[in-house]
Structure formats: structure tokens, C-alpha cells
Amino acid sequence: MSRPMGVYEERRSDRSLRDLEGPASGLHVAIIMDGNGRWAKARGLPRALGHRAGVAALRRTVEGAADLGIERLTVFGFSTENWRRPPREVSELMGLLKAYFQSDIDRLEREGVRVRIVGRRTGLDPDILEIVERAEARTAGNHRFHLQVAFNYGGQADIVDAARAFAQRVQDGLARASDLDESLFEAYLSTAPAPAPDLIIRTSGEQRISNFLLWECAYAELVFQPVYWPDYGPDHLKAAIAEFQSRERRYGAVTGEPAAEDNILAAG
Length: 268
Ligand code: FPP
What we know:
alpha/beta; six-stranded parallel β-sheet; 9 helices; binds farnesyl diphosphate; Undecaprenyl pyrophosphate synthetase
């Protein structure tokens, strides 16, 4: 995978923490962590316990991702549509995000992980915002591994917000509508400046994208795994990477030698 030299050099300098040349070296993997509720139901437990077990799966998966050499992991923690869930469940999910950042931040900081929240910040409680922003500031100098949590995130909402922000710049006389192209537009998304995901995984057996990374998923490989998120771990991630590596990514182009018929046509 070709990357600008500067980025590669920066990563090499962090290598003392862990070997970055794993089988998934440099990849951006995104995960729709689905199935917490069904996992709990299958055990006769309240949904809240499914979400709590989901946090443990997240910890295992972050560790496993770094071991595989994955450079960036984006997980879908709470969607703009999840506000429609019962208030108790919404507050459980908010509480889990807060608790995760409070309990894990020292270790994440120590291990060279940079954390970032993507999505709409408006609408989040000030105490959550404060914890999240403190975690982002404390880990801003880390480069070994990037953990992005999509929280209060919706792909459509993110595109609308980006369009509004660009329109505002045009209105303020700071940009022209004709300046806009794909690369300028994506700079306005909350996921900027991260590269697009190479692989998007959805657990639980559902095969939908559910408003996740709509712009960014343009050329991502999709892998659907029939395992509830609380049971997920490094071995499942390894299997998803193996599936990803068996795919041929063409980005709309054609690869390989031209077929014999094409050579005949070209020769006239
Ligand atoms: C989908 O399962 C999962 C979610 C809506 C939330 C994911 C949250 C966690 C893994 C825990 C907390 C996250 C962070 C970032 C610390 P579902 O409830 O829709 O499951 P179901 O489809 O089986 O009902």
C-alpha cells in the first residue's frame, strides 16, 4: 500500500511499543458492533448486560487489532438513530462511553493509542464531552494506533453537516462553490483527516451498513460475521482480515494482463 513518506516515517519512529509489521499492517478497519441485545436475550439477561459485555469485547478487539498491525480502528458506538431507544438504554450507553474513557485512558495513553470521537458533538451531555475531549487531548501526541469511536454518529448527518459547513464558507466569501470536489468535500466530514476504511466488519449476521461511514465506505471491503459482538475477539478479527486479504481491490479499474480478445481488438 503506498502512503506518503512522512506518514510512514512517523509510524516507524513509534515501533518500540509493538511490532507494526503484522499481517494487517497499516490497515484501517471499521466495525459495526452488533448483537449485544440478542446476546443478552439468549442468556435471559437485560440488554444492559449485553452492552457491558460489548465493552469487554471492544477491549479485546483493540488489543488484537494492534497485535495484527492494524493502524486504525473505527467502531460504531452510538448512532444518531439510537436516541430512539428507551431512555434507560440510551443512558446506559452514554454511561458506558464515559466509564470506558475514564477507566482505560491511562492505559491507552501509555500504549501509544490516539483516541478520537467522530460524529455530532452537539447533543452530547457536557460531562461526556469533557471526558471525551480530555481523552483526545491527552492522547493527541500518540501515533502507534488510532482508535476512533463513532458516537452520536450518522453517515447521512455527517454528510449534511459537511455540506452546511462548506456552504457557510461560501456564504462568508471564503470559498467558491466551484472549488468543491470529492477531496475538498471529505475534509469537512467529522472523520477527516483519517483515511477511508479498507475493511468494514459487521457482527451478528445482519448484512446492512446502517448509516455507518456512508461516504467513506465507497471502496471498503465488507465482511459480515455471524457472531454476536460480546463474543467477538482477536480470532474473529484475524478471520475477517484473512477474508479481506483474499479479495481483489480494483477501485473501479481493471487489473491483470489484457485478455487475448482485447489484444486482437487493439491490433485492429
Ligand atoms: C448494537 O447492538 C450495539 C450498539 C447499539 C452499541 C454498541 C456499544 C457497545 C459495544 C458498548 C459501549 C461502547 C463504547 C464505545 C464504550 P444492539 O443493541 O443493536 O443488539 P441487537 O441488534 O442484538 O439488539
